[in-house]
């Protein structure tokens, strides 16, 4: 597969990238939405994190911004392809299963480090205007995952370029990055606590932590893991959004569901 990717023409790489990222976004988003809105509640598994409604304007905005991000990520496949064409990077041809598994683990850790650094930068005074469009989704949905400003999409979309310059990865290891990245992103933006019995700091509580990031903003800059927020002291307390949510519940109780 790696050889086939390298043999693609420039337009072929762009088309492949658009189909790949567009397909991932729509399929993962739809499956996560179905699970959290229909299947899991019917089975009594998990719970909704933020009960506030999602307005029609948010849906339109998320799909519009996500479409632009898919365009950037898809067309951006010319950059890893270009590194291979220029000989600045190479693919491991005969990588075995254990090597691929080890590479995916390393890339998963790198993905979290890369995300934390860029996410923290996007919350600085210099760059936060580029992160604002994503944070307009206070109550997140699985389709919030790619709802970025183009600058943010460019910052997050270069995650595999740096590793390619220092190691010859398998094609499958590199291709796994957007797959597990979007999977974890859909989970984090699902507004759903999938495993209620685990502690707030558990890997499986990532949706709780990212829900709080959208509700309270300053903190929880990490991705799936917690080590970067622990290291730099940026983890939000588990009750960071209690004031906002309790105010909404009181309003609902006094004014009714349509308030």
Task: Tell me what the structure shows.
This protein has 259 residues and is an all-alpha fold. The protein has one domain (2-255). It contains twelve helices and two strands, in the order ααβαααααααβααα. It has helices at 2-7, 10-43, 56-75, 78-86, 97-122, 128-135, 150-156, 161-166, 171-188, 206-216, 227-232, 242-255, and strands spanning 47-48, 192-193. It has a two-stranded antiparallel sheet. Helix 2 runs antiparallel to helix 3 and helix 5 (97-122) packs across helix 9 (171-188). The chain is globular and about 65 Å long. It starts with a helix and ends with a helix.
Mind telling me the C-alpha Rg?
19 Å
| Number of helices, where a helix is a run of at least 4 consecutive DSSP H or I residues | 12
Return the structural class.
mainly alpha
Mean pLDDT: 90
Summary, kept brief:
The protein is an all-alpha fold. Helix content is 64%, strand content 2%.
Please describe the structure with a list of short key phrases separated by commas or semicolons.
259 residues; mainly alpha; 2% strand
Topology:
Blueprint: H1 2-7, H2 10-43, E1 47-48, H3 56-75, H4 78-86, H5 97-122, H6 128-135, H7 150-156, H8 161-166, H9 171-188, E2 192-193, H10 206-216, H11 227-232, H12 242-255
Antiparallel strand pairs: 1-2
């Amino acid at each position: 597969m790696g050889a086939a990717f390298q043999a693609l023409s420039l337009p072929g790489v762009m088309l492949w990238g658009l189909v790949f990222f567009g397909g991932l976004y729509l399929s993962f988003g739809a499956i996560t939405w179905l699970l959290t809105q229909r299947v899991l509640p019917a089975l009594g598994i998990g719970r909704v994190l933020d009960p506030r409604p999602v307005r029609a304007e948010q849906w339109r905005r998320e799909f519009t911004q996500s479409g632009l991000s898919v365009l950037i990520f898809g067309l951006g496949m010319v950059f890893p392809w270009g590194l291979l064409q220029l000989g600045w990077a190479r693919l491991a041809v005969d990588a075995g299963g254990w090597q691929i598994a080890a590479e995916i683990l390393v890339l998963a850790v790198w993905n979290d480090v890369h995300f934390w650094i860029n996410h923290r930068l996007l919350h600085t005074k210099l760059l936060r205007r580029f992160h604002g469009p994503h944070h307009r989704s206070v109550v997140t949905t699985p389709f919030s995952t790619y709802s970025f400003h183009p600058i943010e999409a460019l910052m997050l979309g270069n995650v595999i370029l740096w590793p390619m310059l220092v190691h010859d990865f398998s094609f499958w290891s590199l291709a796994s990055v957007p797959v597990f990245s979007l999977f974890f992103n859909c989970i984090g933006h699902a507004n759903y606590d999938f495993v209620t019995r685990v502690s707030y700091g558990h890997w499986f509580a990532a949706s709780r932590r990212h829900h709080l990031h959208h509700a309270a903003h300053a903190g929880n800059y990490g991705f799936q893991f917690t080590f970067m927020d622990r290291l730099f002291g940026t983890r939000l307390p588990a009750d960071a959004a209690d004031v906002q949510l309790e105010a909404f519940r009181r309003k609902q109780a006094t004014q009714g569901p349509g308030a």
